[in-house]
Automatic annotation (TrEMBL):
Membrane-crossing residue ranges in chain numbering: 12-30, 50-73, 100-123, 129-150, 162-181, 215-235
InterPro entries named among the record's database cross-references: ABC2_TM, ABC2_TM_bact-type, ABC_2_transport, Nod_factor_ABC_transporter
Protein topology in the membrane: Multi-pass membrane protein
Keywords, comma-separated and alphabetical: Antibiotic resistance, Cell membrane, Membrane, Transmembrane, Transmembrane helix, Transport
Source organism superkingdom: Bacteria
Glycoprotein recorded as keyword: no
PROSITE patterns per UniProt: ABC_TM2
Subcellular location: Cell membrane; Membrane
Stated name of the protein: Transport permease protein
Pfam families linked: ABC2_membrane
Similarity remark: Belongs to the ABC-2 integral membrane protein family.
Taxonomy of the source species: Bacteria, Bacillati, Actinomycetota, Actinomycetes, Kitasatosporales
Keyword Calcium in record: no
ABC transmembrane type-2 domain sequence ranges: 10-242
């Protein structure tokens, strides 16, 4: 947090400008073409309203990666701040908790700023935007906690780059963010439905638009919560092994 006080302005600008550009270009520009053809895949939902919650969930995934992958890898190096902290009275669990709290803080603040933009665009109202912050946080933690657990074990930065290029980016493109996953071929549709981003996009979108069903929301929430808790358990073990060397 002491370090973040020096750079928070840049992150706030990115958190506001990025959704503004995406929603203006894709939602307002491309969206007019999509709406003009009355796509049956959107069930009458304007493309801007469809796109914004998907981008919001995908943004939470990206924030989880930015704060939970390379920072953990770098901090665990010999010259990183984890060994220095472990030399004090702090336990590995304390160090993990501090990092996870900061990740949660970043997901919440970035999500809140993104939601403010969606309210300005008329996608959702202020009250529903507050409700949507819960699915956004859960989507972010479902990625952040397993990423933290994995990153503490990584020895080469190329592996982290590989996960971003070959895991996160395909999820970003094919998990229902920009178009309904129902438009994918049968086998890919099944694979997409099993991914955490698809679950997060669906939960976020239906909450933001006020179309959430109880049973479906329970399934999405249970899936994301299971990933979050599993990631925390594995991260505690990983931090203990790494920092007790």
């Amino acid at each position: 947090m002491r370090r973040y006080r020096r750079i928070w302005r840049g992150s706030v600008v990115i958190s506001v400008v990025n959704p503004l550009l995406f929603l203006a270009a894709l939602g307002g520009g491309l969206g007019k073409l999509v709406d003009a053809h009355h796509s049956g895949h959107l069930a009458g939902t304007p493309y801007l309203d469809f796109l914004a919650p998907g981008l919001l969930a995908a943004s939470a995934m990206q924030n989880a990666f930015v704060e939970g992958a390379f920072p953990v890898f770098q901090s665990a190096r010999a010259q990183g701040n984890y060994p220095a902290a472990a030399a004090t009275a702090m336990r590995p669990g304390d160090i993990l908790a501090g990092h996870l709290l900061f990740v949660v803080f970043r997901i919440l603040t970035s999500g809140a700023l993104f939601l403010a933009v969606t309210v300005a665009f008329g996608v959702t109202g202020p009250g529903r935007a507050l409700l949507t912050l819960g699915p956004v946080l859960l989507t972010g933690t479902a990625f952040a906690m397993p990423l933290v657990a994995w990153s503490i074990t990584v020895e080469r930065p190329s592996r982290i780059n590989g996960v971003y290029r070959f895991v996160l980016m395909p999820l970003y493109m094919f998990s229902g963010t920009f178009f309904p996953a129902s438009q994918l071929p049968g086998a890919l549709r099944t694979v997409a439905a099993c991914t955490p981003l698809y679950q997060g996009v669906e939960l976020t979108r239906h909450t933001a638009l006020g179309t959430a069903g109880t049973a479906a929301s329970a399934v999405h929430t249970g899936y994301l919560l299971t990933l979050t808790l599993t990631g925390i358990v594995l991260a505690r073990r990983g931090y203990t092994r790494r920092l007790h060397r």
